[in-house]
Design goal:
It contains 25 helices and 26 strands. By secondary structure, the chain is an alpha+beta fold. The strands form 7 sheets. Strands 12, 13, 14, 16, 17, 19 and 20 form a 7-stranded antiparallel β-sheet that branches. It has a 5-stranded mixed β-sheet with strand order 2-11-10-3-9. It binds 2-(butylsulfanyl)adenosine.
């Protein structure tokens, strides 16, 4: 019988072997052992340590979003057209009367680049800035129609759109997300499987494939296919097992006019399509002609995106109500006669603030024009005064239902002067009305709802929060964590099981990163992105609270995207919430923010070889903390080889591939040079 110590040693050895071979398999496309041998290592580890973290790692894919990827081929944008004249101009002038075009729907999802090496999926990245995106390989592998291997051992970068079908969105997600695109983008980037949607609910459609040249290709990869046209690439994609976006070829006479007719046909059948599309893309089909015409830094000249016109409808303004939000701002909400626009029925439209009401010169009883552009929340863009809906014939969108009810008598919009929730006097703050009463119920309930939404607590929604507030079971966010099972069971229409689930859900929301915590607090202007930037700057809550104690907002303006105003708002927000934060931290586990992705080595792959003066593990740790990635063998995808003494064949291989080689001293220099983008706060914590 083996002792516990021996088992521990074996477990670690197995885990290391699996990590090593996963890297060769997934990242290098150069396995040293057979699939069966790999599976056997995996099974052995599973038998000895079923919970071992290595088992849940797919290959050695990094956490989604934690590593930046430089695109070998930049992912550009598309030039836009909205009128028929612009399409004709594109056809006859920009592309100099090209003789063949393809047309595809322009999918409204999230762009994804899939890198296959020797026919095996090694990396998936978001578009990001176009030059650099985020590694989302682990989630991309969960998308059912993204194949792990292609039907051929080629090196290729396949681009396409990740989307959620409208049916699935309606069935499962329409309550939690404004549109399928946000969900798809979120599911692709999420680090854990507990986000709103799971990547396995997504679907991929390819619209492009690019082949690295012979110098960059894996030495064992097959030759790319010989093609002359984009349509042949799309056919090739289908053949090797990747689903392309549907396409149509246009050739012959009068192409401009034919493309315009095509846009009209699509505008009519848009809503019949199973996915959100926001227009059409026209592209020259011949690759040689594309090369001749070229690209700008922003978009190719050989393609154009035609966007569907914004959808408009008319309705009647029935009333305006005022609502207090979590930050105390009291906003006007227009109640309009229910109207369909862009496929959704609209009844409530925010009017933002008093200035917006004045700008639109709105009165109750007015006919109003509402517009929905793509996925954007519908808004009122114009008041047509007393015009009757029948007067608008010809200007009304096909979907517009004539208003049959009684028109309200024309009345000016009443402007609130007390808070609709606590009746305190309101203060005019620029264009906004504000309730400054700290214990205002509406503010507390909105803040609680915001907290639960931000932490994605399933089953703890608006209704439950209202119920808990009404029953005086909670008065602050921290009270949520003091709730007990018997208190919830005692609520009206509440079963044992639901109460247990609610407690469990609240309990499981106690672990969060600093950025999630800051976002969930719901301070004005501190959305998820700003919260992440601030959290990466402070890294720990302690560092942040020390800064708030000093009361000097300016230092925060060194963070990208944070100006004086936001820094000041944030400081005030933290100070105001001092006692809430102190109360909360005794229940929460707030982890330090990961800073790896902001290091100077982000997106760079390192391999270390030879004997070194410091423990290899320490060097690896320093590189990964600066955003670099460690691999164990030299391949074309390696960026830097770090060499110590007594190096072997790796150096020769790296040199033959033209890979940068650094000595240990050079590496140290890079760490110590002032070009490091690691914030000061992080330096002390990670001991750079
Ligand atoms: S072709 C050089 N085809 O639209 C860019 N793009 O606005 C070549 N998109 O980032 C892109 N459907 O994510 C192309 N059928 C389609 C598309 C499509 C959606 C997206 C794509 C791109 C964005 C540009």
């Amino acid at each position: 019988m083996s002792t516990i110590d021996e088992d521990d040693g074996l477990i670690e050895e197995l885990a290391q072997k699996i990590a090593y071979h996963s890297d060769l398999y997934y990242n290098q496309a150069a396995p040293e052992i057979s699939d069966a041998q790999f599976d056997s290592l995996f099974e052995k580890l599973k038998a000895l340590a079923p919970e071992h973290p290595q088992l849940s790692k797919v290959g050695s894919d990094p956490d989604p979003g934690s590593v930046k990827v430089k695109h070998l081929f930049p992912m550009k944008s598309l030039d836009k057209a909205v009128t028929a004249e612009e399409i004709i101009h594109y056809c006859e002038v920009t592309t100099e009367g090209g003789e063949r075009y393809i047309a595809q729907p322009k999918f409204d999802g999230s762009a994804l680049s899939l890198e296959y090496r020797c026919g095996r999926l090694v990396r998936a990245a978001t578009r990001g800035s176009g030059t650099r995106g985020e590694d989302v390989t682990r989630n991309a592998r969960l998308i059912a129609n993204i194949p792990e291997t292609l039907g051929t051992k080629v090196d290729v970068h396949i681009r396409g759109e990740v989307m959620m079908s409208l049916d699935l969105f309606e069935q499962k997600y329409s309550e939690v997300s404004p549109n399928p695109r946000n969900l798809a983008a979120g599911a692709l980037r999420q680090k854990h499987e507990d986000g709103k949607a799971h990547a396995s609910d997504l679907i991929f459609r390819a619209y492009d494939a690019k082949f690295p040249d012979a110098k960059t290709r894996h030495p064992e990869s097959e030759e790319p296919p010989l093609v002359e046209c984009d349509s042949e690439i799309l056919e090739w994609l289908e053949k090797v097992g990747v689903e392309p976006a549907p396409w149509m070829v246009f050739q012959g006479e009068n192409l401009g006019a034919a493309l315009v007719t095509h846009t009209q046909e699509w505008a009519e059948k848009r809503s019949e399509f199973g996915f959100e599309i926001d227009g059409l893309v026209f592209k020259l089909d011949h690759l040689s002609r594309r090369e001749l015409i070229g690209s700008t830094a922003h978009h190719p000249r050989w393609a154009i995106a035609w966007k569907f016109p914004p959808e408009e409808a008319f309705s009647v303004l029935l009333a305006v109500d005022w609502q207090t939000g979590r930050t105390g701002v009291v906003t006007p909400v227009a109640r309009i006669a229910p109207q369909k626009v862009g496929g959704v029925t609209v009844e409530n439209v925010t009017l933002h603030n008093i200035r917006e009401i004045e700008r639109l010169n709105l009165s109750i009883g007015d006919v109003v024009k509402i517009v929905r552009r793509g996925d954007v929340i519908p808004k009122i863009i114009e008041s047509l005064g007393k015009a009757s809906i029948t007067d608008l014939q010809g200007r009304v969108h096909a979907d517009t239902t004539p208003f049959k009810g009684e028109l309200p008598a024309p009345t000016p919009i009443p402007i609130a002067n007390t808070c609709p929730s606590c009746q305190s006097d309101l203060i005019l703050d620029g264009a906004f009305l504000r309730c400054n009463y700290v214990d205002c119920d509406a503010k507390i309930s909105r803040a609680l709802i915001y907290w639960c939404r931000a932490l994605e607590m399933d089953g703890v929604g608006e209704k439950l929060i209202e119920l808990l507030l009404e029953n005086n079971l909670i008065t602050s966010i921290a009270d949520l964590y003091r709730l007990q099972h018997h208190q919830i069971v005692a609520l009206e229409r509440m079963g044992e099981k639901s109460a247990t689930n609610i407690i469990a859900e609240i309990h499981s929301s106690r672990e969060m990163s600093l950025s999630q915590f800051l976002h969930a607090l719901g301070m004005p202007r501190i959305g998820p992105e700003v919260a992440t930037a601030i959290a990466q700057y402070f890294v720990s809550l302690d560092a942040l609270l020390m800064w708030a104690d000093k009361g000097e907002a300016e230092s925060l303006t060194t963070v990208d995207g944070i100006g004086d105003k936001v820094a000041e708002i944030f400081l005030q927000g933290v100070i105001e919430r001092n006692s809430l934060i102190a109360d909360l931290i005794s229940y929460l586990f707030i982890s330090a923010e990961e800073v790896s992705s902001i290091g100077r080595f982000s997106g760079k792959t390192f391999c270390i070889t030879g004997s070194l003066s410091q423990p290899r593990k320490r060097i690896q740790e320093r590189i990964t903390k600066a955003g670099g990635k460690i691999v164990s063998s030299v391949g074309p995808n390696l960026d830097i080889l770090v060499v110590g003494e007594k190096v072997g064949s790796k150096l020769a291989k790296a040199e033959s591939l033209g890979i940068e080689v650094w000595s240990e001293e050079q590496l140290d220099l890079k760490f110590n040079s002032d070009g490091l983008t690691i914030p000061d706060s992080a330096k002390t914590i990670f001991d750079y």
